[in-house]
Amino acid sequence: MDGAVTLGERFLTFANPGRALTAPILRLTGIRDEDLQGAPSSREAVALFVDFAFRDGPPCFVGHNVGFDVSFLERAGMSTGSRTLDTAELASIVLPSASSYALQRLAADAAIVPDAAHRALDDAITSALVLGHLARIARELPPDILGEIAALSELIGPSTAQFFREAAATATREAWSGESEHRGGLPRSAPRGIAMDRLPGAARSEGPHVARRSPLSVDSVFAADGPLARSLAGYEDRQEQRELAVAIERTFADGGALVAEAGTGVGKSMAYAVPALASAQMGERVIISTHTLPLQDQLVRKDLPALQAALGSDVSVAVLKGRSNYLCPRRWQILRGAVTNREEARIVCKTLVWRTTTETGDRAELNLMRGEGELWSRISASDESCDQRRCKRMPGVNCYLQRARDAAADAAIVVVNHALLLQDARMHGALLPQAEHVVIDEAHRLEDVATDAFGLELHEPRLRRDLQRVAHSSAVTSALRDPGRAEPAERLRADVDRALERTSEVFDALGALLVPVTGPAEDRMRITAGLRASDDRWLPVELAGERLADAIVGIGFAAERIRNLGGDEDELAELETATGELAAARAAITRGLHDPRPTDIVWIEREADGALALYVAQTHLGRVIRRALVDAHRAVVFTSATLAVAGSFAFALDRFGIAGLADTLAVGSPFDHQRQALLVLPADIQLPGEDRFVPDAARLIEDLARALGGRTLVLFTSHATLRDAASRLGALESEGLAVLTQGIDGSRRALLERFTQGRAVLLGTQSFWEGVDLPGDILRCVVIARLPFSVPDDPLIQGRAERYDDPFVEFQLPQAALRLRQGFGRLIRTKTDYGAVVLLDRRVVTKDYGEVLLESLPDARTEHLPLDGIASRVAAWCDRG
Ligand code: SF4
Questions:
Q1: 573 lines ligand 1 (CB under 6 A)
Q2: N or C: fewer beta carbons within 10 Å in the chain?
Q3: Tens digit of pLDDT for each residue in 692-734?
Q4: Residue 387 Cα, ligand 1 centroid: separation in angstroms?
């Protein structure tokens, strides 16, 4: 297995399917109906191919996702049971951190330039060359790892196993002959991990250990002849950025809270990174929290290193994520020793390869294929099984989570996400080191995350799993075998059986509430004081809840008795962790069913898979956020591109609980929206929900896509409307324009990747309203189908809105304004971008509140146009750019 690929004879034929080609096929392959005239039928073509491929005996078919092609051939008459070697699957093992396993991407990364011949043949040859490339990479792996992968690969397929056996043999031979560049399995390249070096001599519980030096000042760093201007590639002096940095520097110096809105393009991460580095250099730790992982990565991999290099700074920076992001070596070893199927074999193989290079064990470094995310939860650190007391004592357990926590404890700047920041607050500082200052970027998402962090949930399948886990824990199993400890263990098992029965009673009773006397069952329902007082169906819920809570208490007592009788320390620790989960379930029963606080919002919801859950959330988290963040640190900065509504911060200050306590600052975007962006308001479209709205919207989307060659993002607020509109855009496909539909055409990442290839319209809902960054020529038009008001019958929204004298004006409208601005913000990402936003919801001009919404948007040129004139006007606007 030397990776050399010799291209021999080729077989090429069209197959006539006996019907006209569909638009997506035309677009994807470039084959036209006339190309197929005179071609053999599918069956005839397959027979010819079989004669060619099987002439020297049964072949091994190699291809990218080859299972698809082989099953097609089998359906068309080829005998079944052929051996296969899938280059996509091999790539996912030997390149566990590749950003994509698309054939063309792998080929490009390997500098393989396919012949521009016919697509199918071209792909086949590319696959063969990629196979050679993968073989060359595989043989650089340590022989022992390759041997284990070869054994596990028997579950994937004999050809895959043979591939790795040959790679192992080659690697061993080269190791002995000294040919390999890295004998003995040393990494081929520097690990991609995030450096988490501990500073020498730093004490864990003390603040960051840093050398004090003359302080950095924002004025000097951002000066026209300052270090950024001198050494940061592409640096532009932006007044807005300096203004923001100065305000943050002042807040760090004086203490207190700052709520700062910085429009797109300000460069706010640099604006807070400079004062953060300055504080860190003075021995004051700074926590930076983001909502999304991409921003976290950008900070840790790009912005902070670039800034430190420019400033000659060497402040220690660590990133810390929630525990489920880290590979748990203990759980991984358990799966490694008990692999039973192809999927498990594949993830163990790819993590075997990954572990030769990763320093962090961070999932973000792994490209998990479909279905592997589920398996990841079996090998990641988890609340349920993580027991650091035990693992610290186990020799050879190199716990990534613990290393990340140790690194964070010693770092001067710690980058986290909101979920971890708030979980730490809920656990009274148990997860993060003490810090003087906190910067909360993407602060517009803080309340959503706090709702989860400080809420309670009773989820039927999860509760059942937690109960089973306690019953079958090794402490209970061992106790059952010991006559001196068997009695409480039997008692515990009986209580678990009782709790399982009562779980059914509780959820049956809750489920009955979702079935109204007349009409179809609902998916969610708020549990109000009125319902508790007057609905006959409530009493059975309460009674069942009481019985379930009693059973859980019984389990807790029995578990405590087992622990008091002694036994294996590790097993008892695991039992304690498992019963802790049940305590959380009991809290949800108490607050949700029996004793809600006046400020609690309680509701039940049936999920898409049919599972039922009870939720408890707080009406207003301001006090919690203030206490957890503002009162606990010297300075806290809340920042985002969307915090102010029509120039007012009242909404954000109220939701963060810091009205009257915080300074505010709004720095506009450095972009010239009047020149770069056109806001189009159709003058003659019906209102959303009316008969003609979706057909007219779809027609306009088609016109825009034709006029712009795709390059259009359409934002919806409901999946139903999105699907309705998508079903009306079929004509675009036949014109070579891809219609990419969320929920139908792949993951968010896959859709965005395809969109960047051009000639595409992308239709998305919530997750596409923010975090989509498509600068340059890729995106020229954003269509907003409907104003993004929250669904009024959402129990959480209902409960939160009731707190206000005027719920619409004080709560729903500001929320919608901020979301609308997020959607608008997808268009202009750089100073050279230009394009149009078409807002289809006419309520923005017909309703009084429309003014607030429009005032919240960037100052774009606004035009009211008839539907028929919009596409040509947008095209002309874009052409002039
Ligand atoms: S402490 Fe142990 S159980 Fe927890 S993540 Fe680390 S290795 Fe896994």
A1: no
A2: C
A3: 999 999 999 999 999 999 999 999 999 999 999 999 998 888 7
A4: 6
How many whole angstroms from 399 Cα to the centroid of ligand 1? 6
What is the atom index within ligand 1 of the atom nearest the CA of 385?
3
Q: Do 800 and 707 lie in a common domain?
A: yes
The domain boundary residue, chosen from 138, 169, 186:
138
Task: Determine, yes or no, domain membership for 15.
Answer: no
* Residues 680 and 614 grouped into a single domain: no
Our count of domains for the chain comes to: 4
Ligand 1, atom 4, lies closest to the CA of 386
Q: Is the CB of 401 under 6 A from ligand 1?
A: yes
388 CA closest ligand 1 atom index = 1
Let me know whether 386 and 465 are in one domain.
no
CATH no. for residue 44?
3.30.420.10
Ligand 1, residue 381: give the atom nearest the CA: 5
Ligand 1 touching residue 404 (CB < 6 A): no
The reply to whether 677 and 614 lie within a common domain is no
Nearest CA to ligand 1 atom 3: 386
| Cβ of residue 328 lying under 6 Å from some atom of ligand 1 | yes
Centroid of ligand 1 to alpha carbon of 191 (angstroms)? 22
pLDDT range class, residue 546, cuts 50, 70, 90? very high
Residue 746 CA to residue 225 CA, distance in Å, equals 48
Q: Which of 326, 360, 399, 576 to mutate to test the pocket of ligand 1 (most atoms within 8 A of CB)?
A: 399
Q: Which of 360, 382, 398 is the last residue of a domain?
A: 398
Specify the CATH number for the domain of residue 718: 3.40.50.300
Sign of CA dihedral 229, 234, 239, 244: negative
Q: 358 lies in which domain range?
A: 324-398
DSSP letters spanning 653-710? HHHTT-TTTEEEEEE--SS-HHHHEEEEEESSPPPTTSTTHHHHHHHHHHHHHHHHTS
| pLDDT tens column, 209-262 | 444 455 788 999 998 888 998 888 778 888 999 999 999 999 999 999 999 999
**330 pocket-lining for ligand 1 (C-beta < 6 Å):** yes
Of 125, 184, 192, 177, residue with least CA distance to 2: 177
Q: Could you tell me if residue 836 is left (phi over 0), alpha (psi between -120 and 50 degrees) or otherwise beta?
A: beta
* Ligand 1 near 327 CB (within 6 A): no
What CATH number is attached to the domain comprising 498? 1.10.275
504 and 381 in one domain? no
**Residue whose CA is at the smallest distance from ligand 1 atom 2:** 391
CA of 691 to the centre of ligand 1 (A): 57
Per-residue pLDDT, 385: 62
Specify if 259 maps to a domain: no
Query: Does residue 465 fall inside a structural domain?
Result: yes
> What are the tens digits of pLDDT across the range 734-757?
788 899 999 888 788 888 988 999
What's the mean per-residue pLDDT of the chain?
A: 89
Please tell me whether residues 606 and 467 are part of one structural domain: yes
682 and 580 belong to one structural domain: no
Task: Tell me which residue has its CA closest to atom 1 in ligand 1.
Answer: 388
Q: Are residues 359 and 507 in the same domain?
A: no
Distance CA 177, CA 139 (A): 14
Q: Which tokens belong to 773?
A: 């960054």
For residue 189, pLDDT beyond 80: no
Answer whether residue 218 is part of any domain: no
Closest CA to 160 of 69, 92, 86: 86
The set of residues, in sequence order, having a beta carbon less than 8 Å from that of 238 and lying 6+ positions away, is 265, 266, 267, 670
